[in-house]
């Protein structure tokens, strides 16, 4: 079975930092691109960042690329999302996702095949 196990996140004051981790199998990590999405209450799921197989290229939503960093650790089959200078509006459930095929963009949730369970990120002001 395919598992994307998320960890990290939590509570932080505005301006602080948090890190999310998503650990999966070697097969998934080697053959899928990985992405992070978030969903705030009352809003649709929003693309945050993606990383290609092997971590060669990264992609970000424009509004977050200056504060968030996606990275991968091949040895650990883990993708990370480092979130800096957090703002209350970053509060959301953050989901890790894995996609097998590239369909022209990394932004659409429909381009991903597997999803993590989600981790809450709450930023207080």
Quaternary state of the chains: single chain
Mean pLDDT across residues: 95
Low-confidence segments, ≥5 residues, pLDDT <50?
none
Tally of individual helices: 1
- H/E element sequence: EEEHEEEEEEEE
Label the overall shape: globular
Helical residues, percent: under 10%
Number of strands: 11
Sheet with most strands: 7 strands, mixed
Query: Over all CA atoms, what is the radius of gyration?
Result: 13 Å
**Class inferred from helices and paired strands:** mainly beta
- Termini separation: 40 Å
Strand content: over 45%
SSE diagram, text form:
Layout: E1 5-8, E2 10-13, E3 18-23, H1 26-31, E4 33-39, E5 46-51, E6 58-60, E7 68-73, E8 78-83, E9 92-99, E10 114-115, E11 119-124
Parallel strand pairs: 2-11
Antiparallel strand pairs: 1-3, 3-8, 4-5, 4-9, 5-6, 7-8, 9-10, 9-11
Detailed description of the structure:
With 125 residues, this protein is mainly beta. It has 1 helix and 11 strands, in the order E-E-E-H-E-E-E-E-E-E-E-E. It is globular. It has one helix at 26-31, and strands at residues 5-8, 10-13, 18-23, 33-39, 46-51, 58-60, 68-73, 78-83, 92-99, 114-115, 119-124. The strands form 2 sheets. Strands 2, 4, 5, 6, 9, 10 and 11 form a 7-stranded mixed sheet that branches. Helices cover 5% and strands 46% of the residues.
